[in-house]
Amino acid sequence: MAISESTIQEIKNRIDIVDVISDFVSLKKVGSNYRALSPFTNEKTPSFYVSPSKEIFKCFSSGKGGDAITFVMEVEGINYIEALKYLAAKYGIEVQEEEQTDEQIQAQNERDSLFIVLNFANEYFKKQLFDSDEGRSIGLSYFKERGFNEQTLKTFELGYSLDVWDGLLKEAKKKGHSEELLEKAGLILKQESKIYDRFRGRVMFPIQNVAGKVIAFGARTLRSDKKQPKYINSPETEVYHKSKILYGIHQARQAIRNEDLCYLVEGYTDVISMHQAGVQNVVASSGTSLTKEQVQLISRYTKNITVLYDGDSAGIKASFRGIDMILEHDLNVRAVVFPNGEDPDSFSRSMTSDAFREYLETNARDFITFKTDILTDGGKQTDPVKKVQVIREIIESISLIPDGIKRSVYISACADLLDVEEQVLLSELNKLLIKKQRKDRAQPEPPEPEDLPLTEAKQPKPNLQSLAYPVERECLRLVVNYGNEPFDEEITIAEFILGETQTINFENKSIEETLNLAAQVVDEGKKIEPDIFIGPENPTMSQLVIDLLEMKYFVSEGWEKKHRISTMHESEDLPSAAYTAILRLKRKKLESLILQNEETLKKSKSVEEQEELMTMHKHLKMMLKEIDDELGIVISS
Questions:
Q1: Which of 341, 365, 476, 524 lies in disulfide reach of 370, CB 3.0 to 4.6 Å?
Q2: Between 80-90 and 68-76, two packed helices, what is the crossing angle to 10 degrees?
Q3: At a CB cut-off of 8 Å and minimum separation 6, what does 573 contact?
Q4: Rounded distance, CA 344 to CA 355, Å?
Q5: Over the stretch 44-75, which tens digit does the pLDDT of each residue have?
Q6: What global pTM score does this model have?
Q7: Partners of 195 in the beta sheet?
Q8: Alpha helices in 204-267 (DSSP H)
Q9: CA atoms of 323 and 290, how far apart (whole Å)
């Protein structure tokens, strides 16, 4: 089924791009626009901008840009239809679908199919938990023993897989799902002549992406059989890459943004118990080592992470690399250690919600205090050799912090804590930084150029046609930014530029195509709006227009007041800017014609043809001089 055009239009009419993007990044108002750290790259200085008036975003670090639909597609890695359905669900819009042709059904990609079959499996597992005798007596009993209430079960969509070989397989085939797709989704296994369910006799934890789509499962056995692994997870698939997702991120993202803090734990039940205890800004790495992609995912919502550990000091030491990775991404990291024998799951269930929150707040320590305490066994380890090793490890962690001010503050704290002269620590830090800089700068020597005979080393002739791109681009920039503004009492800027360029052949076909679309819009009596040019149908045009839209640079009112400097923006004299752009475009076209005429003249052998070409040359030169004179008047005024 395809989404109807009326539904698509309703979604577009309801979208608030700031509201949509705020679900993924923390936006800060700057002038009439909004700014944030890019959700696509690991940047230190914000270069991601949102324009509510134009209803577009532009990421200057990655080059990505577009409307709210494009943003959801890019940030979630989903297609156009999936993005529309996500936005429809967000704004409570009922999706009207239309019948697809046989070709469209055949073209439905594997990714869409995987989401469909994984959602089917999720619904199947939930049904078994609540409706089957085995699910209620084993699975539901287990969850209730852990203290999970009905609302929590629904929030995290917990389920149960029956202890049979092919329960899911049979039900899926009844519903028309193929064995091939079930295998690709990681739901069944094929072994020689046997085909059977991957998950059997286990409680099920669906793993969701940021948008809430089920992409995989974690499953826990309730048997005491030590030959069986306690947990098994879905294999990596087209839609599931375990290094790029965090368990609970869908349920936690809004709370993380509101609290400006993310708690990081290890397991599924840790997340669920803390969420039920009122601490909803919590996610889990699901038993895997923390990855840079997971850190970047958290950084979309906050720069503050608190890592929660149980009392196993060996396990904590093994996770130090995760803390270093957080520091390396310029995030602030703290740590909380629970008493021996306790973990976030058990400890949160042993006290009231208020008491648990208070414990987290009062026991959170900065990474230096935390790391020192662990490495020195709470200060009991006083061996000088060990102390030197501890200092070196902590300095190495500090050296990973990109912010120089932060490094300085942590060095000072480290000096006080370990009773070492600050200058000594600074010296060691500088050695590490210099070593790192040398490593970063190390590049392989470029290959030596081949020695060519002097006769072959010809200088390329200037191609004036290629120099037309900037002036062609400038004409389009004025149309998409100011096309609806008046040129004079009778016509708009768009009408003036499009009229003047109607007979001009543009070298850049994307610019010509975009101007042709703008001309069509103007002929229909409509206004020039950015979303006319932006969409998945023509990504080249979309990117071109987005790059031309004015978003990033502006003079703030505060700056003008402070320095008492008056500046003039081009928008204050648009007719002059448009007129000048057309003159410069025509000048480039004349230069190109003159060059072509000269080349033809050199090859001409007929006297009559040469005289005709010379006459044409003089005429073109005269026109060029007229434009030069006109540009001089415009520039001097």
A1: 365
A2: 110
A3: none
A4: 13
A5: 788 888 988 888 888 888 888 888 998 988 88
A6: 0.65
A7: 190
A8: 249-259
A9: 9
